[in-house]
Amino acid sequence: MSGTAADKLADDLARAIIEGVFPPGARLDEQQLAQRYAVSRTPVREALRQLATTGLIEVRPRRGAIVTQVTPAQLEELFVAMAELEATCARLAALSMAPTERRRLQDLHETMGEMAAANDVAGFTDANQALHTLIYAGAHNVVLADWAAATRRRLSPFRRAQFRVEGRLPKSHSEHDAVVRAILQADAHAAHAAMLHHVTRVERSFEELCAESAASASA
């Protein structure tokens, strides 16, 4: 139970931090968070541990969890690194995936199409991570897969936030379609280019969300 509660709480806290509810420098007190979100302190601790791996917060001795300042330049660097890592994974997956891996990728992609059509944000968000993980594994390069997964964890709150942009689900699925089609056709060059485009669109969607939040705050 605590794992599910912690995952949801981590998403809620990440959203609150991104939207400025908890500004940079704010201390996140475990007891206060437990009361605010009506949970026990156990999922709060786990949620804070998850957020610490993303760089959104920093756990300091005797001060606890502090919201950090993530600058636009730092985010851009992370997204550029993510795009290059994922594009390389897609290129290698196009060359290296076994037939069973390709079928699994295709099946998941088709299921995600149904989720996008039903506007199932929660299901699509979870499946999205699974799809990218399949591509990392399909590259058959453990070092590269580990780097991609670690970078993705750091960007996870920002990547998940993109799905709050209206109409993002079908667009994301369309971008995935180009990636998956290229991998299934063993077209390494097209897979690389399609994944670069996809991660760039993810970054732009997050920027649009931030702009909308800023406009709403100033209205």
What this model shows, in words?
It is a single chain. By secondary structure, this protein is mainly alpha-helical. It folds into 2 domains: 2-67, Orthogonal Bundle (Arc Repressor Mutant, subunit A), CATH 1.10.10; 72-218, Four Helix Bundle (Hemerythrin (Met), subunit A) (Up-down Bundle), CATH 1.20.120.530. The chain has 9 helices and 3 strands. The chain has helices at 2-18, 30-36, 41-54, 72-96, 99-117, 121-138, 142-161, 168-184, 188-218, and strands spanning 27-28, 57-60, 64-67. Strands 1-3-2 form a 3-stranded antiparallel β-sheet. A hairpin with a 3-residue loop joins β2 and β3 (64-67). α1 (2-18) packs across α3. The N and C termini lie far apart (40 Å). The model has no long low-confidence stretch (mean pLDDT 89). Residues 3-70 form the HTH gntR-type domain. Keywords: DNA-binding, Transcription, Transcription regulation. One of its GO terms (molecular function) is DNA-binding transcription factor activity. InterPro entries: GntR_C (IPR011711), TF_FadR/GntR_C (IPR008920), Tscrpt_reg_HTH_GntR (IPR000524), WH-like_DNA-bd_sf (IPR036388), WH_DNA-bd_sf (IPR036390). This is Transcriptional regulator.
